[in-house]
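Incident log, structure service

09:12 report received: a user says their structure output differs between two submissions of the same chain.
09:20 pulled the input from the user's history:
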Amino acid sequence: MSPAVRTVLGDVPAAELGAVDAHDHLFLRSPALPGEELDDPRAAEAELTAFREAGGGTVVQWTPRGMGRRLADAAAVSRATGVHVVAATGLHQALHYQPALLERDMDRLAELFVADLTTAPVRAGLVKVAGGFHGLDAHARHTMAAAAEAHRATGAPVAVHLELGTAALDVLELLCGGLGMPPASVVLGHLGRSPDVRVQLEAARAGAYLAFDGPSRRHHATDWRLFDQLAALVEAGHAGRILIGGDTTTAGARREGPGMRFLLRGLRPRLEREFGAEVGRAVFVENPGRAFGWVQGPLAPGE
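09:34 re-ran on a clean worker, output below:
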C-alpha cells in the first residue's frame, strides 16, 4: 500500500503526487524580512500555474505557525490550479516571532502541532522546526522535542531548517538518538549552503532525507556546487535520499526568479543528463512521496 501524504485538500497517495517541489513557500512573512512578505494569493496562484504547466504536481510549503501560512488561501490556490500543496505546522527560530507569541505557546507546542496535523479546518502535512548556526540552542531543542512528540502521535514527517546548512548531525543526534524518531521521517533542509559532502554522506547513511535548494539570487553562491554534491551522493548509492526545492522566501526572490518551474525545466533535465532518467524520477517523484508520507498512515477526520 502506498503511503499517504496529507495535503491542504486531504490525503493523497504518495504515488499520485507527480513531480514535487520539495521545499518552497507560497506564503510567508517574518519580522526578520520586513517589506518582503509573500502574501498575494494571485501571485501564489500564478506561481503554481507556471509550475503545473512545467509538469509539476505538488509543492511542499515549509512555512510554519505564526509566519503567514494563509492556509485557507493555500487550499484555494491548490484547488484553482490542480497542484497539490502540503502545508507545515511547527515553529521556526525565535527571531521570526514576537516574544509574546512564544511565551504564550511554548508550553503546549506538541498539542498545537498535533491539532494542526489532525483537526484543523485546513490541515498541515509536516512539522517544520529549525536549528542554529553550528549548534542547537534551547529554543531549537524545545521545538524539536515537541516535533518528535507530534510525530509519535501522528506519524507525520519532521522537516528541519539548517541554518546556513550547518548542524545536520547535531539535529539527527537529538531527533533520532535522543528523541527516538526514525531517520526516514526526518528531512534536513538547506544542506547545500554548507557543502560538506562528508556530513551529507553521513546523514544519508543514517537514513534521513537531504533537501537541497534550487537556484535563487540570494543563494546563488551554492548553485555551482549542487551537482558535485549530488554526484557524491549518487555515486555512494544514496540517490534515494535526495530532494530538491526552490525555497523562495521573499517577494523580491519571487520577482527575480527563476521560480518553481525552473526546477523541472532547468534542473531536472540537467540532472537526468548527468545521472540518468531513473535518478531524475527518484529525486522529483519517488523520494518526496516517501519523505513526506505518514508512517502510520492517514488519520480519519477528527481522529
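09:41 both user submissions now match this output. Likely a transient worker issue. Closing.
09:42 reviewer note: Residues 138-154 form the longest helix (17 residues). The two ends are 21 Å apart (CA to CA).
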